[in-house]
Amino acid sequence: MVLAPNNTETQVTEFIMMCFPGMQDTQHWLSIVLAPLLILALGANFVLLFTIWQETSLHEPMYYLLAILSVLDVILCLTVIPKVLVIFWFNMKPISFVGCFLQMFIMNTFLPMESSTFLVMAYDRYVAVCHPLHYPSIITEQFVINAAIFIVFRNLLATLPTPVLAARLNYCASNMIESCICANISVAKLSCGDIHLNKLYQFVSVWCLLGSDLVLILLSYCFILRAVIHQQSGGTVTKALSTCGSHVILILFFYTILLVFIFTNKAGKKIPSEVPILLNVLHHLIPPALNPIVYGVRTQEIKQGIIKLIKHPG
């Protein structure tokens, strides 16, 4: 912190991440779990990406969407977890003003991007099951390109105001963030100004983006279930349904942890403050670690591609 020109108040130039305020002496033990999960998440996603890149049989829209999901998972992991581990291992709690809001921007943008990717994947499965004959003409490489552009610009435009609104606040008091992550409200509440607009915009943007995605995903699967009930499942539909199971598992990983985090955070003092902090960290780690494993285990084409690369790495 540095003195302001009028010498009457201090101006914050960096923040101190306290992580788990009530567990300062024992929080480093969490790294025993977090570090292996980070290695697993990065390793599994890189293996999946390399397999899709190398195996020509996987050069299909469905696998391209899965590759987009893996890229988002890797970025989210690297944005949050290494800093948390550095705090645990070396007690390096400071983060620069710019670094904090950059982390906030990435988290607020890429998490909704992941949600939008699940939505596009749900539409892909809807077309595969409900309109299998039209699938090759609807779900094309151009569709994936258009979907990627939609995912990026929709969420970038909607979430960019969140860190901008937080960065424009006047931080002249405490710089201690009671979290492991530069979350919007955790940072904004340290300012000397009014943060009602910050809270309102975050509430509206989160529920408009993630809420609409979840509703449309559920609607897609309602149509899929109706189609399965009212038709004899041929070979194409059976194959499409097999990947639906993997997709549903990934959605459960993503939205369940997110919803639990939101509700525990709203519960306030009824729940220990460490619980939402831990859930926030795990939400950037568990889905990225499990997503590629689920698809690798449940999707025969990916499993065969990985085995092929192991046996013939050249």
Automatic annotation (TrEMBL):
<dbReference type="Pfam" id="PF13853">
    <property type="entry name" value="7tm_4"/>
</dbReference>
<dbReference type="InterPro" id="IPR000276">
    <property type="entry name" value="GPCR_Rhodpsn"/>
</dbReference>
<dbReference type="GO" id="GO:0005886">
    <property type="term" value="C:plasma membrane"/>
</dbReference>
<keyword id="KW-0807">Transducer</keyword>
<keyword id="KW-0472">Membrane</keyword>
<dbReference type="InterPro" id="IPR050402">
    <property type="entry name" value="OR51/52/56-like"/>
</dbReference>
<dbReference type="GO" id="GO:0004984">
    <property type="term" value="F:olfactory receptor activity"/>
</dbReference>
<dbReference type="GO" id="GO:0004930">
    <property type="term" value="F:G protein-coupled receptor activity"/>
</dbReference>
<keyword id="KW-0812">Transmembrane</keyword>
<keyword id="KW-0716">Sensory transduction</keyword>
<keyword id="KW-0552">Olfaction</keyword>
<dbReference type="InterPro" id="IPR000725">
    <property type="entry name" value="Olfact_rcpt"/>
</dbReference>
<keyword id="KW-0675">Receptor</keyword>
<dbReference type="InterPro" id="IPR017452">
    <property type="entry name" value="GPCR_Rhodpsn_7TM"/>
</dbReference>
<keyword id="KW-0297">G-protein coupled receptor</keyword>
<dbReference type="GO" id="GO:0071396">
    <property type="term" value="P:cellular response to lipid"/>
</dbReference>
<keyword id="KW-1133">Transmembrane helix</keyword>
<protein>
    <submittedName>
        <fullName>Olfactory receptor 56A4-like</fullName>
    </submittedName>
</protein>
